[in-house]
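TODO from last week: model ABC transporter ATP-binding protein.
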Amino acid sequence: MALSGIKAVKVVTSELAIDTHGLRKTYRTLRGKRVVAVQGLDLQVPIGGVHGFLGPNGSGKTTSIRMLLGLIRADAGTMSVFGRPVPEQLPEVVARVGAIVESPKFFPAFSGRRNLELLADAIGTPRRRVDEVLEETALRDRGKDRFKTYSLGMKQRLAIAATLLKEPDLLIFDEPTNGLDPAGIREIRETMRGLGDQGKTVLVSSHILAEVEQVADTVSIIGHGRLLASGTVAEVIGSTAALTVRVGVADLAGATRVLTEGGLTVRADGQHLLVEGAAEPAEVTKRLAEQGLFVSELVPVRADLESVFLELTAGEGLGGDR
Ligand SMILES: Nc1ncnc2c1ncn2[C@@H]1O[C@H](COP(=O)(O)OP(=O)(O)OP(=O)(O)O)[C@@H](O)[C@H]1O
Protein backbone atom coordinates (compact mmCIF):
# COMPACT_ATOMS: atom_id res chain seq x y z
CA MET A 1 0.00 0.00 0.00
CA ALA A 2 1.31 3.44 -0.83
CA LEU A 3 1.15 5.76 2.09
CA SER A 4 1.40 9.48 1.97
CA GLY A 5 3.83 11.43 4.20
CA ILE A 6 4.33 11.12 7.89
CA LYS A 7 1.85 13.02 9.94
CA ALA A 8 1.14 13.36 13.60
CA VAL A 9 -2.49 13.87 14.55
CA LYS A 10 -2.45 15.98 17.65
CA VAL A 11 -4.54 14.59 20.49
CA VAL A 12 -6.93 17.41 21.24
CA THR A 13 -7.45 17.28 24.93
CA SER A 14 -6.67 19.65 27.72
CA GLU A 15 -6.24 16.81 30.14
CA LEU A 16 -3.25 14.65 29.65
CA ALA A 17 -1.99 11.81 31.76
CA ILE A 18 1.44 12.07 30.11
CA ASP A 19 2.89 14.97 28.17
CA THR A 20 6.47 15.07 26.93
CA HIS A 21 8.21 17.60 24.72
CA GLY A 22 11.56 17.30 23.06
CA LEU A 23 12.54 14.37 25.24
CA ARG A 24 16.05 13.18 24.54
CA LYS A 25 18.37 10.48 25.83
CA THR A 26 21.79 9.40 24.60
CA TYR A 27 23.58 6.39 26.03
CA ARG A 28 27.29 5.91 26.03
CA THR A 29 28.34 2.31 25.63
CA LEU A 30 31.33 0.82 27.44
CA ARG A 31 33.33 1.30 24.26
CA GLY A 32 32.49 4.99 24.30
CA LYS A 33 30.04 4.81 21.41
CA ARG A 34 27.08 7.20 21.51
CA VAL A 35 23.62 5.70 21.06
CA VAL A 36 20.79 8.17 20.64
CA ALA A 37 17.87 6.21 22.06
CA VAL A 38 15.28 9.01 22.22
CA GLN A 39 15.63 12.13 20.12
CA GLY A 40 13.05 14.84 20.67
CA LEU A 41 10.04 12.76 21.61
CA ASP A 42 6.69 14.53 21.94
CA LEU A 43 4.28 12.09 23.54
CA GLN A 44 0.76 12.94 24.58
CA VAL A 45 -1.40 10.42 26.38
CA PRO A 46 -4.97 11.49 27.18
CA ILE A 47 -6.53 10.68 30.53
CA GLY A 48 -8.67 7.52 30.49
CA GLY A 49 -8.51 4.54 28.15
CA VAL A 50 -5.76 2.44 26.66
CA HIS A 51 -2.91 4.14 24.77
CA GLY A 52 -0.67 1.96 22.62
CA PHE A 53 2.97 3.09 22.59
CA LEU A 54 4.23 1.41 19.47
CA GLY A 55 7.52 1.10 17.73
CA PRO A 56 9.98 -1.49 16.46
CA ASN A 57 12.56 -3.07 18.73
CA GLY A 58 15.12 -0.49 19.78
CA SER A 59 12.96 2.52 18.86
CA GLY A 60 13.20 3.97 22.37
CA LYS A 61 10.02 2.84 24.12
CA THR A 62 11.64 1.40 27.24
CA THR A 63 14.02 4.33 27.53
CA SER A 64 11.10 6.79 27.34
CA ILE A 65 9.16 4.87 29.97
CA ARG A 66 12.17 4.70 32.27
CA MET A 67 12.61 8.47 31.99
CA LEU A 68 8.94 9.05 32.80
CA LEU A 69 9.23 6.89 35.87
CA GLY A 70 12.32 8.71 37.06
CA LEU A 71 14.47 5.59 36.69
CA ILE A 72 16.92 7.32 34.35
CA ARG A 73 17.55 10.98 33.63
CA ALA A 74 16.62 12.67 30.40
CA ASP A 75 19.36 14.68 28.65
CA ALA A 76 16.87 17.27 27.45
CA GLY A 77 13.17 17.97 27.12
CA THR A 78 10.23 18.24 29.48
CA MET A 79 7.84 15.65 30.88
CA SER A 80 4.73 15.85 32.99
CA VAL A 81 2.44 13.26 34.53
CA PHE A 82 -1.07 14.47 35.36
CA GLY A 83 0.16 18.01 34.85
CA ARG A 84 3.05 17.69 37.30
CA PRO A 85 6.53 18.20 35.92
CA VAL A 86 8.64 15.08 36.37
CA PRO A 87 11.04 14.08 37.72
CA GLU A 88 10.88 17.27 39.84
CA GLN A 89 7.38 16.61 41.20
CA LEU A 90 7.31 12.85 40.74
CA PRO A 91 6.87 12.25 44.49
CA GLU A 92 3.52 14.07 44.29
CA VAL A 93 2.15 11.82 41.53
CA VAL A 94 3.97 8.58 42.12
CA ALA A 95 1.12 7.17 44.20
CA ARG A 96 -1.14 7.55 41.15
CA VAL A 97 1.19 5.59 38.90
CA GLY A 98 1.64 1.82 38.71
CA ALA A 99 4.18 0.32 36.34
CA ILE A 100 5.55 -2.99 35.24
CA VAL A 101 8.84 -2.42 33.54
CA GLU A 102 10.57 -5.63 34.51
CA SER A 103 9.09 -8.87 35.82
CA PRO A 104 8.52 -8.37 39.52
CA LYS A 105 9.73 -10.99 41.96
CA PHE A 106 7.22 -13.14 43.79
CA PHE A 107 7.76 -15.96 46.27
CA PRO A 108 7.40 -19.13 44.17
CA ALA A 109 6.20 -21.36 47.02
CA PHE A 110 3.52 -18.92 48.21
CA SER A 111 0.13 -18.64 46.59
CA GLY A 112 -0.68 -15.69 44.39
CA ARG A 113 -3.03 -14.43 47.08
CA ARG A 114 -0.40 -14.73 49.82
CA ASN A 115 2.11 -12.86 47.67
CA LEU A 116 -0.40 -10.05 47.20
CA GLU A 117 -1.27 -10.01 50.91
CA LEU A 118 2.38 -9.55 51.81
CA LEU A 119 2.68 -6.72 49.33
CA ALA A 120 -0.55 -5.11 50.55
CA ASP A 121 0.76 -5.20 54.12
CA ALA A 122 4.08 -3.75 53.01
CA ILE A 123 2.47 -0.75 51.33
CA GLY A 124 -0.28 -0.32 53.93
CA THR A 125 -3.15 -1.25 51.63
CA PRO A 126 -6.21 -2.95 53.19
CA ARG A 127 -6.39 -6.71 52.61
CA ARG A 128 -9.78 -6.38 50.90
CA ARG A 129 -7.95 -4.90 47.93
CA VAL A 130 -6.35 -8.31 47.38
CA ASP A 131 -9.74 -9.86 46.55
CA GLU A 132 -10.60 -6.95 44.30
CA VAL A 133 -7.38 -7.09 42.29
CA LEU A 134 -7.56 -10.88 41.95
CA GLU A 135 -11.03 -10.39 40.52
CA GLU A 136 -9.91 -7.60 38.17
CA THR A 137 -7.14 -9.75 36.75
CA ALA A 138 -9.31 -12.89 36.49
CA LEU A 139 -7.14 -14.72 39.02
CA ARG A 140 -9.70 -15.24 41.75
CA ASP A 141 -10.11 -18.95 41.10
CA ARG A 142 -6.37 -19.59 41.08
CA GLY A 143 -5.46 -17.19 43.88
CA LYS A 144 -4.86 -20.00 46.36
CA ASP A 145 -2.48 -21.92 44.09
CA ARG A 146 1.26 -21.59 44.41
CA PHE A 147 2.89 -18.95 42.24
CA LYS A 148 5.28 -21.50 40.74
CA THR A 149 2.36 -23.44 39.25
CA TYR A 150 1.14 -20.38 37.31
CA SER A 151 1.42 -20.06 33.55
CA LEU A 152 3.47 -17.12 32.23
CA GLY A 153 0.24 -15.27 31.47
CA MET A 154 -0.99 -15.76 35.04
CA LYS A 155 2.34 -14.59 36.42
CA GLN A 156 2.08 -11.48 34.32
CA ARG A 157 -1.50 -10.90 35.49
CA LEU A 158 -0.36 -11.30 39.09
CA ALA A 159 2.21 -8.59 38.38
CA ILE A 160 -0.61 -6.39 37.12
CA ALA A 161 -2.67 -7.27 40.22
CA ALA A 162 0.25 -6.17 42.38
CA THR A 163 0.44 -2.78 40.66
CA LEU A 164 -3.32 -2.36 41.10
CA LEU A 165 -3.17 -2.77 44.88
CA LYS A 166 -2.58 0.93 45.47
CA GLU A 167 -5.35 1.89 43.01
CA PRO A 168 -3.25 3.87 40.53
CA ASP A 169 -4.89 6.12 37.94
CA LEU A 170 -2.12 5.55 35.38
CA LEU A 171 -0.74 2.12 34.55
CA ILE A 172 2.39 1.74 32.48
CA PHE A 173 3.08 -1.66 31.00
CA ASP A 174 6.25 -2.21 28.99
CA GLU A 175 5.74 -5.07 26.52
CA PRO A 176 3.44 -6.98 28.91
CA THR A 177 2.71 -9.76 26.43
CA ASN A 178 6.35 -10.65 25.69
CA GLY A 179 6.76 -14.41 25.65
CA LEU A 180 3.08 -15.18 26.17
CA ASP A 181 1.02 -17.64 24.14
CA PRO A 182 -2.11 -16.41 22.31
CA ALA A 183 -4.37 -17.26 25.26
CA GLY A 184 -2.08 -15.37 27.63
CA ILE A 185 -1.98 -12.40 25.28
CA ARG A 186 -5.77 -12.36 25.11
CA GLU A 187 -6.08 -12.41 28.89
CA ILE A 188 -3.69 -9.49 29.32
CA ARG A 189 -5.57 -7.63 26.61
CA GLU A 190 -8.86 -8.19 28.38
CA THR A 191 -7.37 -7.05 31.67
CA MET A 192 -6.07 -3.86 30.03
CA ARG A 193 -9.41 -3.22 28.34
CA GLY A 194 -11.20 -3.66 31.68
CA LEU A 195 -8.90 -1.10 33.28
CA GLY A 196 -9.40 1.34 30.43
CA ASP A 197 -13.17 0.91 30.71
CA GLN A 198 -12.96 1.76 34.41
CA GLY A 199 -11.55 5.14 33.39
CA LYS A 200 -7.96 4.35 34.23
CA THR A 201 -5.22 5.39 31.83
CA VAL A 202 -3.18 2.48 30.51
CA LEU A 203 0.01 3.10 28.57
CA VAL A 204 1.10 -0.13 26.94
CA SER A 205 4.21 -0.44 24.84
CA SER A 206 4.59 -3.04 22.14
CA HIS A 207 6.46 -3.74 18.94
CA ILE A 208 3.68 -6.09 17.86
CA LEU A 209 0.91 -3.91 16.72
CA ALA A 210 -1.73 -6.61 16.36
CA GLU A 211 -1.55 -7.20 20.09
CA VAL A 212 -2.46 -3.62 20.86
CA GLU A 213 -4.62 -2.56 17.93
CA GLN A 214 -7.70 -4.32 19.23
CA VAL A 215 -7.47 -2.84 22.68
CA ALA A 216 -6.08 0.67 22.17
CA ASP A 217 -8.27 3.75 22.09
CA THR A 218 -5.36 5.93 21.01
CA VAL A 219 -1.85 5.18 19.82
CA SER A 220 1.53 6.82 19.38
CA ILE A 221 3.89 5.30 16.87
CA ILE A 222 7.59 6.01 17.31
CA GLY A 223 10.70 5.24 15.32
CA HIS A 224 14.28 6.17 16.19
CA GLY A 225 13.06 7.83 19.35
CA ARG A 226 10.76 10.25 17.54
CA LEU A 227 7.00 10.47 17.20
CA LEU A 228 5.84 9.35 13.74
CA ALA A 229 2.08 9.46 14.23
CA SER A 230 -0.44 9.70 17.03
CA GLY A 231 -4.16 9.93 17.63
CA THR A 232 -7.06 7.53 17.69
CA VAL A 233 -6.56 4.36 15.69
CA ALA A 234 -9.00 5.71 13.08
CA GLU A 235 -7.19 9.04 12.89
CA VAL A 236 -3.79 7.47 12.43
CA ILE A 237 -5.06 5.19 9.70
CA GLY A 238 -7.00 7.99 8.06
CA SER A 239 -4.19 10.53 8.19
CA THR A 240 -1.50 8.25 6.94
CA ALA A 241 -2.95 5.70 4.59
CA ALA A 242 -3.74 6.52 1.00
CA LEU A 243 -7.20 5.68 -0.25
CA THR A 244 -7.43 2.25 -1.82
CA VAL A 245 -10.50 1.14 -3.75
CA ARG A 246 -11.38 -2.32 -4.98
CA VAL A 247 -12.80 -2.04 -8.49
CA GLY A 248 -14.87 -4.59 -10.38
CA VAL A 249 -14.78 -4.12 -14.15
CA ALA A 250 -15.17 -6.55 -17.06
CA ASP A 251 -12.09 -5.39 -19.00
CA LEU A 252 -9.35 -5.67 -16.36
CA ALA A 253 -6.49 -5.04 -18.77
CA GLY A 254 -8.17 -2.00 -20.34
CA ALA A 255 -9.04 -0.52 -16.97
CA THR A 256 -5.50 -1.09 -15.69
CA ARG A 257 -4.11 0.80 -18.69
CA VAL A 258 -6.51 3.74 -18.32
CA LEU A 259 -5.96 4.11 -14.58
CA THR A 260 -2.18 3.69 -14.78
CA GLU A 261 -1.99 6.29 -17.55
CA GLY A 262 -4.02 8.55 -15.25
CA GLY A 263 -1.27 8.31 -12.65
CA LEU A 264 -2.94 5.84 -10.30
CA THR A 265 -1.34 2.70 -8.91
CA VAL A 266 -3.11 -0.48 -9.92
CA ARG A 267 -2.71 -4.05 -8.69
CA ALA A 268 -4.63 -7.14 -9.71
CA ASP A 269 -6.69 -8.76 -6.96
CA GLY A 270 -8.37 -11.82 -8.47
CA GLN A 271 -11.17 -10.59 -10.69
CA HIS A 272 -10.82 -7.10 -9.22
CA LEU A 273 -8.30 -4.29 -9.29
CA LEU A 274 -6.91 -2.53 -6.24
CA VAL A 275 -6.43 1.11 -7.10
CA GLU A 276 -4.43 3.57 -5.03
CA GLY A 277 -3.81 7.25 -5.37
CA ALA A 278 -7.29 8.53 -6.17
CA ALA A 279 -8.48 11.59 -4.26
CA GLU A 280 -11.90 9.95 -3.91
CA PRO A 281 -13.59 6.78 -5.23
CA ALA A 282 -15.61 8.77 -7.78
CA GLU A 283 -12.39 9.71 -9.57
CA VAL A 284 -11.89 6.05 -10.50
CA THR A 285 -15.45 5.71 -11.85
CA LYS A 286 -15.10 8.91 -13.85
CA ARG A 287 -11.78 8.01 -15.47
CA LEU A 288 -13.07 4.61 -16.52
CA ALA A 289 -16.45 5.85 -17.73
CA GLU A 290 -14.71 8.43 -19.94
CA GLN A 291 -13.06 5.52 -21.76
CA GLY A 292 -16.27 3.52 -22.04
CA LEU A 293 -15.39 1.17 -19.21
CA PHE A 294 -18.12 0.64 -16.66
CA VAL A 295 -17.57 -0.29 -13.07
CA SER A 296 -19.61 -3.16 -11.63
CA GLU A 297 -18.29 -2.70 -8.12
CA LEU A 298 -16.38 0.00 -6.25
CA VAL A 299 -15.49 -0.52 -2.60
CA PRO A 300 -13.13 1.63 -0.54
CA VAL A 301 -10.71 -0.69 1.26
CA ARG A 302 -10.06 0.14 4.86
CA ALA A 303 -6.37 0.23 5.63
CA ASP A 304 -5.41 -1.46 8.86
CA LEU A 305 -3.11 -0.07 11.45
CA GLU A 306 -0.61 -2.85 10.82
CA SER A 307 0.02 -1.58 7.28
CA VAL A 308 0.33 1.99 8.52
CA PHE A 309 2.71 0.90 11.25
CA LEU A 310 4.89 -1.09 8.89
CA GLU A 311 5.01 1.73 6.40
CA LEU A 312 5.80 4.39 9.00
CA THR A 313 8.47 2.34 10.67
CA ALA A 314 10.06 0.83 7.57
CA GLY A 315 13.79 1.16 8.01
CA GLU A 316 13.33 2.23 11.60
CA GLY A 317 14.32 0.11 14.52
CA LEU A 318 17.61 -0.42 16.19
CA GLY A 319 19.10 2.81 17.40
CA GLY A 320 22.70 3.65 16.79
CA ASP A 321 25.07 6.51 16.23
CA ARG A 322 23.12 9.43 15.02
N1 LIG B 1 21.82 1.00 28.87
C1 LIG B 1 22.02 1.17 27.56
N2 LIG B 1 23.24 1.42 27.06
C2 LIG B 1 23.45 1.61 25.75
N3 LIG B 1 22.46 1.57 24.82
C3 LIG B 1 21.21 1.31 25.25
C4 LIG B 1 20.92 1.09 26.64
N4 LIG B 1 19.58 0.85 26.76
C5 LIG B 1 19.06 0.92 25.51
N5 LIG B 1 20.03 1.19 24.62
C6 LIG B 1 19.86 1.38 23.16
O1 LIG B 1 18.95 2.45 22.98
C7 LIG B 1 18.07 2.18 21.89
C8 LIG B 1 16.62 2.21 22.38
O2 LIG B 1 16.42 1.12 23.27
P1 LIG B 1 15.05 0.87 24.04
O3 LIG B 1 15.23 -0.34 24.89
O4 LIG B 1 14.60 2.12 24.70
O5 LIG B 1 14.05 0.56 22.83
P2 LIG B 1 12.68 -0.22 22.84
O6 LIG B 1 11.83 0.45 21.82
O7 LIG B 1 12.16 -0.34 24.22
O8 LIG B 1 13.11 -1.64 22.29
P3 LIG B 1 12.68 -3.09 22.76
O9 LIG B 1 11.28 -3.27 22.24
O10 LIG B 1 13.68 -3.95 22.07
O11 LIG B 1 12.82 -3.10 24.25
C9 LIG B 1 18.52 0.85 21.35
O12 LIG B 1 19.41 1.08 20.29
C10 LIG B 1 19.22 0.19 22.49
O13 LIG B 1 20.21 -0.70 22.04
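Done. The first helix runs from residue 61 to 68.
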